[in-house]
Amino acid sequence: MDAGFCVEALKEALAGYGTPEIFNTDQGSQFTSTDFTDVLRDAKIKISMDGHGRWIDNRMIERLWRSLKYECVYLNAFETGSEARDGIGDWISYYNERRPHSSHGIMTPDETYDRRSPDLKVAA
After folding, report:
1. By percentage, how much of the chain surpasses pLDDT 90?
2. β-strands 46-48, 22-24: how paired?
3. pLDDT tens, 46-100?
4. Alpha carbon of 98 to those of 5, 61, 112: distances in Å?
5. DSSP code for 24
6. Integer Rg of the chain from CA
7. How many H helices and E strands in the chain?
8. Between these two residues, 14 and 114, which has the higher pLDDT value?
9. DSSP at 107
10. pLDDT at 73
11. Distance separating alpha carbons of residues 93 and 7, to the nearest angstrom
12. CA angle, corner 60, sides to 56 and 61, nearest 5?
């Protein structure tokens, strides 16, 4: 992937959605280039790129993708993009609304979200 494209996508995302507190950049050289990291520094965003154990930062999303692949994508022979969109959308609704999670005390993500403390910050 072209570093210039990534820099432009980053600028567009920051302009449209605001600045995060921290950005993990150890996914590839296009995300660790000085052009890319200078945009982050100029926006006063903390940069994480130690390359060690970063999967742990994203373990919940990694589990989501693993579950999606094994419980939906690999079990269905989606023939069109619209079939895949509908099937994956149905699975995500199931995952969030009806599937209990041990990490949430056997509650669904929706139930956990509804019970969160009102003083917690909501991610952008």
Report:
1. 37
2. parallel
3. 888 765 555 555 677 778 889 999 999 999 999 999 999 999 999 999 988 898 8
4. 39, 18, 12
5. E
6. 18
7. 6, 2
8. 14
9. B
10. 95
11. 33
12. 100
Residue 28, amino acid: G
Which structure tokens are listed for 63? 């589990």
Q: Do 124 and 17 form a contact (C-beta atoms < 8 A)?
A: yes
Instruction: Provide the token pair at 21.
Output: 């507190």
62: left (phi over 0), alpha (psi -120 to 50) or beta: alpha
CB 1 within 8 A of CB 8: no
The confidence band for 32, taking pLDDT boundaries of 50, 70 and 90, is: confident
Boundaries of every domain in the chain: 3-52, 58-114
Average of per-residue pLDDT across 24-31:
66
CA 38 to CA 6: how far, in whole Å? 13
Distance between CA 99 and CA 93 in Å, rounded? 9
